[in-house]
Fold this sequence. Notes:
Distance between the termini of chain A: 23 Å
Low-confidence stretches of chain A: none
Largest interface: A-B, 58 and 58 residues
Number of strands of chain A: 17
Largest sheet of chain A: 13 strands, mixed
Structural class of chain A: alpha/beta
Number of helices of chain A: 11
Oligomer: homodimer
Shape of chain A: globular
Mean pLDDT of chain A: 96
Strand content of chain A: 15-25%
Amino acid sequence: MTQQMGKQSLQFEKAPVIVSSASVTGKKEGEGPLGQSFDMVCSSDKFGEDSWEASESAMQKEAAALAMGKASKSPKDIRYVFAGDLLGQTIATSFGLMDYEIPLFGLYGACSTCGEALSLGAMCVAAGYGDYVIAITSSHFASAEKQFRFPVEYANQRPLSATWTVTGSGAFVLGKEGGKAKITGITTGIIIDYGIRDSMNMGAAMAPAAAKLIVQNFKDFGRQPQDYDLIITGDLGYVGQEILWKLVSEQGYDISRNHRDCGIEIFDKEAQGTQSGGSGCGCSAVTLSAHFLPQVESGALKRILFVPTGAMLSQVSFNEGQNVPGTAHGVVIETCV
Amino acid sequence: MTQQMGKQSLQFEKAPVIVSSASVTGKKEGEGPLGQSFDMVCSSDKFGEDSWEASESAMQKEAAALAMGKASKSPKDIRYVFAGDLLGQTIATSFGLMDYEIPLFGLYGACSTCGEALSLGAMCVAAGYGDYVIAITSSHFASAEKQFRFPVEYANQRPLSATWTVTGSGAFVLGKEGGKAKITGITTGIIIDYGIRDSMNMGAAMAPAAAKLIVQNFKDFGRQPQDYDLIITGDLGYVGQEILWKLVSEQGYDISRNHRDCGIEIFDKEAQGTQSGGSGCGCSAVTLSAHFLPQVESGALKRILFVPTGAMLSQVSFNEGQNVPGTAHGVVIETCV
């Protein structure tokens, strides 16, 4: 039986496996340090569509197709899809996945949605509710800038604390068996408000939630930082990383040696002008799929804690002067090798 | 063990119960046919807040508090909350529930979200992942009009096919035991696009998805319409109801005698000028909580199929000329008496 661990965690006795995964990105991501690892890089960021939103939908559709193909599965083999994106009313997801006709649970956890989708997907498979499910998320630089800040056509300036929303979609097929990596546990996040009001500094808004989630994971599972080969946050960037390390060290833990951030990994800060790093719920998804997961599958990494982070704002909440609270969802992934 | 039934359904062998529920609404809903049944009716629709969005958050907070109170539970007893609303980036939910510090799975299924939340909550309890969870949704007339159509201050005209978004929040505490109604099964929806492009006719956009879900439920469970005392859709309204009956009858089923729609029940069409009926993911939630669930709890209704329906559009997708696809999530609720 699956065990409830501590306040916020579950440990799966029969751990669901990640059967396959796929990553689809835009041009800039393809030019970055991980460019050679992505399954598909689009040369235009438009993916053959007329609008940024439709382009993001096309990415999701493609990522799901690639992940199913790698697992030798077709849509009728997939019992549920757990999916989300950053856009209002998650339109990238509904228009992107509609044609597959797979029962859909639409999710919103801002940039933490990849962690939320993997968590619910793993819970579902572990309980025997489906033999195979898909967890998928996406983000697109242009649709996100338009949604949260300014249309890119305005060419507004970006402060050093700003992150660059990743144009990408990552999809994961989860199942009972047949993969080289497994999800052995999850830690589900609460929403934390540290009073940040700067929509150009998402790292600072999310770092407190990430710190709280990581420390809670240590407590719930009775682990220390060194019990994980890597602790990987989603998109804190350079600014958020510094805050994270400080907040976690105040709780008596040092994660500075084995912490990585997908937003830092995906771009070359200097060469690509991406300021604090990459962000978006496509950022953590494609970086996990293309960069970290293969290392778990090969056994080079034995156990990682994957912690996508999200900033809970909308254009309306921001314009109305609300704070930007953060959240985070933790997924423990271990090698089957 | 829980059984996978047919293409899209689950049957819970140990059915989770609805331990308690609560409904909070605005003034207009309080003046309607169900007004006396709601737990709390606010006289101003502002709930003491400065913005419509914050008012919606306040409703969610209150509904969750009332439901926990009825179940004699406090936030620390609740393992997860499954929650959503209609606003971009689901801000009503994050700001409304933040203070409870309960691990949160944020959901988006448009007006079908109440069915999605009850489904995932029931799956979670049935698998032993939590002793108690909350499923909660909300909508607010003024925040929704601003989000999807025009700010109410514009005083634009409403066609006869338009629905009136319900100002309300409904919360449900689910657990392993201790309630008089139980969730015995679920049918999870896919997204259906019938080519509707009129954001003032949501009933027509959602009816095809509702019809497909209801017929799939009959097939998956091997049931006929008369096996349910009532089949209750979320917010098809008068316009959507007519389409639903027709589409279902084309599949060989007659649901005209035992079909009800929360959007039709909640307002007095003539006296309240609500055109096709009520809508919003608060509509089905408060109508289930205040009107239908008590009848199941008393044994007057033995088994119902609750089918909240959603229209998958955003202001952006609508302005970009996209269709308005629909979805629906089915929840089978039976009396414990």
